[in-house]
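Re: 3-methyl-2-oxobutanoic acid structure - here you go.
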Amino acid sequence: RKTVTGNTLAALYKKQEKITMLTCYDASFASLMDLCGVEILLIGDSLGMVCQGKDSTLPVSIEEVAYHTECVANGNKTAMIVADMPFGTYPTPEAAYENAAELIKAGAHMVKIEGGRWLEDTIRFLTERAIPVCGHLGLTPQSVHQFGGYRVQGKTEEDAERIIEDAKILQDAGASIFVLEAIPSQLGKRVTEAISVPTIGIGAGPDCSGQVLVMHDMLNVYPGKKARFVRNFMEGQTTIEGAIKAYVAAVKDGTFPAEEHCF
Ligand code: KIV
Ligand code: NA
């Protein structure tokens, strides 16, 4: 396939074809996911949990995300690479730019940054300086202490309206896509309809422009209870390649997420 760029995503969005994203942390999985047709590889700060065994994303550093980004870039051929800005790396627009530039130099095509309208100036500063930005709204895990746990966000009408307004403000500031995490399906739909760039949902319902999961979750690497929005794509498969292809197919044909994965 041709290299996936911002233009590719815009074209998929326009023809309402669902966009597929998975987290990825190394070269081997990057080459396999690329081969399976995943459009976006996300070096999530979830690497703190799934690679480092920490109990939140908060301790992850910019150097660590840059290292994994370089590993992914080495294995990837055509997918778009998005890297997370870790907690504490975007206190000001200038600091955000310096840190984001490290991720771009490591091979990312876009950076993802968690939060609402307080990021307006930062997102404008980055995008004016040629660093594409993915927003992240709803359950933003770097805010776990402020939320008092990993809780579904946007359940009241007031919170829902704030999230919709955040998306509009950050789109106007230059964000080119958004991850929406753990919000009611109805709100995922409302945000998606309120803006004119793609939304990538994780526990945000079937009406988002695409979907994302943490690879270790969808490959069922850890036994035990998962978040509601996770589906085990190894079920019925004998290879990891089969599971990743099943994920791509299920997102594309709209069978994932189903009602049981939504809030
Ligand atoms: O860090 C991560 O894996 C993420 C996804 C869950 C969207 O931000
Ligand atoms: Na993240």
